[in-house]
Amino acid sequence: MILKAKHNFIVYPFFKWYAGFIIKRHNGIVKIIGEFKDKELPILLISNHISWWDGFWASYINQNVLHRKFHFMMLAEQLRKYWFFNFTGGFSVNKNTKSIVESINYTSELLTNKENMVLIFPQGEIQSIHNQDLQFKKGVEHILKNKKGTVQIVFLVNLIDYFSNPKPGIYFHIREYDHEAYDIKSIQKSYTEFYAESVQKQMTFNR
């Protein structure tokens, strides 16, 4: 049995405030690059997984761009350890068990409500920011196969640069996946291309 997401009336607003606070405190530049056209649909946010910060960054993007109720999948043992994340939209997944089907079905259910967004790290683990060849796990494909209705897929690429600043700058590159094909190979190919484009664009910024 999975732990389903909750949004506590005290913990959830505090989490949203705290995410914005620590991001601005620990980073120099915080910049969002790209455009998002709201189609009033549930959102599947696909992001690279490079650090402990990723969930906070996605929350920041949600607050400033997407404006949905925040949901994210988290390993069951981690969610039990950091229980407060359950009250900020976190729900559990147990890898290599039958309950993973329940988590996938629950994610698909969340994506039937236009007020929701679900954050997914498709590679399933933290990897180096320099790895641009992301291999998507099968979970994303199963979620999309089980979805009912239309879902707006948004890509997020998080990149860090210091340049001449003492604090790191965090650059959020966003783009909507606007192709008709919803198979995992097409989505992975589009995301990988977007990642490479984001890195190239990053190199043109002023120091």
Which descriptors apply to this entry?
single chain, 207 residues, alpha/beta, Glycerol-3-phosphate (1)-acyltransferase
Write the layout of secondary structure elements.
Elements: H1 11-26, E1 30-33, E2 43-47, H2 54-66, E3 69-75, H3 76-81, E4 90-93, H4 99-110, E5 116-120, H5 138-146, E6 152-161, E7 169-176, H6 184-202
Parallel strand pairs: 1-7, 2-5, 2-6, 3-4, 3-5
Antiparallel strand pairs: 6-7
Helix pairs in contact: 1-2, 4-5
Architecture overview:
The protein is α/β, with parallel strands linked by helices and 207 residues long. It has a single domain (11-202), classed as 3-Layer(aba) Sandwich (Glycerol-3-phosphate (1)-acyltransferase). Helices cover 36% and strands 21% of the residues. The chain has a seven-stranded mixed sheet, sandwiched between helices. The chain is globular, with a radius of gyration of 16 Å.
The CATH class name reads Alpha Beta
Output the radius of gyration.
16 Å
Overall geometric form: globular
How do the strands line up in the largest sheet?
1-7-6-2-5-3-4
User: What proportion strand?
Assistant: 15-25%
Sheet with the most strands, sense and barrel status: 7 strands, mixed
User: From the helix content, strand content and strand pairing, which structural class follows?
Assistant: alpha/beta
Please give the alpha-carbon distance between the first and last residues: 50 Å
Reading the helices and strands in chain order gives HEEHEHEHEHEEH
Structural domain tally: 1
CATH architecture grouping: 3-Layer(aba) Sandwich
Which spans have pLDDT < 50 for at least 5 consecutive residues?
none
CATH-defined fold name: Glycerol-3-phosphate (1)-acyltransferase
Q: For the residues shown, what is the average pLDDT?
A: 91
**How many H/I helical runs?**
6
